[in-house]
Amino acid sequence: MEREATLTAVMTARASSAPRAASDMSQSENTFAALRSHPDFADVLLLDGEGALLAKVTAEPGQRRGDLLTSVAPVVIEDGGTRRRIGTVEVRFDKARIASEIRGIVLMHILHGILVAGAVVTALFFVARTVTKPLKLLRGTLVHIEGGDYTRKVDPSALSSEHTEVREVARAVERFRETALAVEEIRKSDDRAAREERRRIRAALESTQDAALVLRETGQLVFQNRAARALLGGLLVEGRAPIDAITAPEDQEAVRRAIQDRASDELSTELLTAAGGGETLPVRLRINPIYDADSVYLGAVLMATDISEQVQSAARIRHLAEHDSLTGLKNRRLLEEEISRISADGAHGEVALLLLDLDRFKQINDTLGHPVGDALLIRVAEMIEDVAAGAGLAARLGGDEFALLLRGEDATLRGRVVAREIVGMLAEPVHVANRQLRTGASIGIARLTPEGLTVADAFRRAALALYEAKRQGRGCFFEFEETMEREVRRQSLIEGAMRGALKTNAIYPMFQRQVALSTGRIVGYEALARWTHPELGQISPAEFITVAEETRQIGDLTAHLMTAACRAAVAWRARGFAGRVAVNVSPRLFRHTLPEMIDDVLLAAGCPAEALEIEITEAVLLSDTQRNLSLVSALRDRGIFVALDDFGMGYSSLSYLQSFPVDRIKIDRAFVSKLGTAPEPSALVRAIVELGHALGMQVTGEGVETPEQLEALRAVGADSVQGFVHGTPLDLEQTLVDFDAAARYPALTAERT
Ligand code: C2E
Ligand code: CA
Ligand code: CA
Prior knowledge:
By secondary structure, the chain is an alpha/beta fold. The protein has 25 helices and 26 strands.
């Protein structure tokens, strides 16, 4: 209204400017009369500069009801660029219409307010009744829950509140409370169970004999049982990592790793049982990780079982397995392991293996009994240990075989010294079990280089050297040489070829004449084995007979040769020659089967026993005396002639001769070859001849090469001779010529003498 009034005043002032200037008041009043159409118009005044009324128009009478609103505007005239105030217009508007309008609005607002307030009050009342009260009840429950008390239920009125939200909240709270209460109860009973369980585990751990340690996941000790405290007394402090305190330094790493792996593990180790004392206890340590239900690692339980008894018995068993129970020396197994270890190490340096074999042990054992034999072995073991003085590994391989393994610089040299000493000591009688025993030692030494050495090689080499020492006559030591291996190869070649050679008659006898000194007539032939091998050429019987003896083919070989010899004798007999054929019989064949074998041969050849002579050596009559003597008798009873070969070479002395039941003695070539060089050999040979004759034996000189030797033998009274002086051995054909030229028999001797 004000804006309207002001606008009206300004417009009216502007419209009044010209009439005022012209003082045309009626014009002004016309203009003013237009204002009567405005509903709120009350009156309008035009005043001059001094405020004197110039014109006035009023609304229709009776229209005025209320206060007036006055608005004033100046009446201005533009006069040559300057503005001059020439009067004032006052417009007054009647506020009555507007006031009534405002009153209506205010009334409406008040009414509205009253209505709103009423609604609010109603609502508040409603809320107070349906929300606040149940919430208060809920709050009580929640306060209890907050305090850890889940027992207080939500009031039923809240639960059944008509107010949906409140009802739902109340129900949610009640559900929460119930769950919490249940959880709480479970937790409580869980705690009880867990405590119970802990107690049980603790009791179980306490009651076990094993030392038990429980470690936290950080490795600190949280529990140790009684056994652990007793065993590791004082070494463990709870809250510390115990492993290094109780494990031997060399095992610490392994134990720590086993724990860190967080998996079950089991290992043998040694636990330190006293601080600083260095005392240890072998244990089986089981490490078990502890995980909770969610697989979270909580630590580990360590259980240590005392295994000292097992360790001791294992050590005992190992000792038994590695030592010879009689002498306490190491056994073959251990020695072999040691050699394997050395060759596996490939350590540079020298190794020497000595193999020792007692001479005559079997005899001692058989004749004096096993206790004496055992005592001798123990004594020898002591000697070897003494001599080796801990410098080597001394072992008993079994029977009367011993070994010594030396390592390091000069091993072979030291081996030689040791061997010499042992051989020397055993060459003397050994005092055992109140007896003086005569034994002796043969030793083979193999010098070995660890690279590429196998156990078999080592033993083979030392055994070859030993074999050589025995061949050299025992009571000595021998060192392995490469040639021995060649020899062995040759021997195995011979061994392999022998059977075939017997079948094809590649092995056959040649016959050497035996000539009577009195008549110059051939009185017999000695059969000597011959073998020409396609590759090896002529093999000496000394060699292949040894091989045959060692490979148990000597029986077949002898039967084969004896058969051929007997067939020859039969052929000779057919031509009127009644002399014998002499066949060499190895001492190895002196078994109860010998007479039977000879019977078979004689039968097969159709040869009378009288045509056969067998040559045996003194060895046969010196060992197993009784048995062999009766074997000899059995043969002689059949009419077979028995000759003692190589007489004078062995152990025999003349005094033994009387106990030898033989028909002939053959004086060894070694004596014969010395005849005529000096008087002594003749005297000895004369003594043999005389004694032989006194005992009813014939005496034959062997290896007679010269007429002088022949004459010397004739001079001392020998009966017959054999040797190159009457030719080298002949084949069967050639012997037959001897008979065809029967007339030449006497001349034969005559020619040569
Ligand atoms: P042995 O029984 O003493 O045989 C005599 C050896 O002396 C033979 O050597 C013979 O050829 C050789 N000999 C003969 N006269 C002379 C001579 O005047 N001067 C020289 N220096 N030597 C002469 P062989 O044939 O090499 O036989 C060697 C040994 O082999 C034999 O010695 C004998 O022990 C054994 N032997 C040979 N044949 C057989 C056999 O059939 N069976 C058995 N078990 N052993 C045999
Ligand atoms: Ca002979
Ligand atoms: Ca001989």
